[in-house]
Structures are given as C-alpha cells and as structure tokens.
Design a protein that fits this description.
Oligomer: single chain
Number of helices: 4
Strand order of the largest sheet: 1-2-3-4
Shape: globular
Structural class: alpha+beta
Helix content: 25-40%
Order of helices and strands: HHEEHEEH
Strand content: 15-25%
Largest sheet: 4 strands, mixed
Number of domains: 1
Distance between the termini: 41 Å
Length: 127
C-alpha cells in the first residue's frame, strides 16, 4: 500500500524538500527531523519519540542519538521506499522492550509507538 501524499503540490515542489541543502553553509551538519511525538496532555507536552525517515539503510544516526538522549526520548529511524515501510531501528531509548519481529513492520512500529506513549502516561501523568 503506497504511503498517502498529503499535498501533491508540496510533494512535487523540490524547493520545499531541498531548502536546507541550498540554504545551509557547506560545513553545516544536521538532520531534517521528520517527527517528534509528544505527550497529549497540555500540562506536559514532553517529547516521547523522535523519528527520522530515510530510504537508506546506512544513514548516519549520531545526531539523532544525541538529540534523543538529550531530550530523554526514544530516537527511531524509519526506513522506507516509495511504496511502503521496510523497517525501523531504535537508535536510543530510555526503555527496554521490543515488539516481536513476526509482526508486520507497520503494525510493529505502531505498537512500539503506542507502548512508548503508554509508558510515558504511566510514569508522567500519574504524578
């Protein structure tokens, strides 16, 4: 099942996708982080996970790991092609658990993100 394109115009607009390649100094290091999942509670809003997506299996993860460590949240790299999610890798997590690999990757990622939110809710919202 292909991933849904939310805005065809922005998807096809290379300016929108490549702005950081043109505007950053040549010696700049960074990542264009794709998503930060935060707590639903307006009193909290703490980061729960940070996601970087890529089509490359060997994408460097040093910055994502340091960012997630500093935020105290889980850092995840999601690997995809133009049609589907292929896999995901947990780069850093303050929590120790896994979702069985027998589960389809999309369902495994969803279950993992839901588990992170549940752990956060149990440890932060019950205070």
């Amino acid at each position: 099942m292909p991933l849904e394109i939310m805005s065809e115009r922005l998807y096809l607009d290379r300016f929108f996708q490549d702005w950081h390649r043109r505007t950053m100094p040549p010696d700049a290091d960074g990542i264009d982080l794709d998503f930060i999942g935060v707590c639903h509670s307006w009193k909290c809003r703490a980061p729960i996970y940070a996601i970087e997506s890529t089509t490359r299996n060997n994408k460097p993860t040093t910055i994502l790991k340091r960012l997630a460590t500093g935020l105290g949240c889980t850092g995840i790299v999601v690997i995809h092609d133009t049609e589907k999610l292929i896999d995901f890798q947990v780069i850093y997590s303050p929590h120790e658990f896994q979702i069985p690999h027998e589960v389809q990757v999309e369902a495994r990622l969803t279950a993992y993100l839901e588990a992170l939110r549940h752990i956060h809710d149990l440890t932060h919202l019950t205070r």
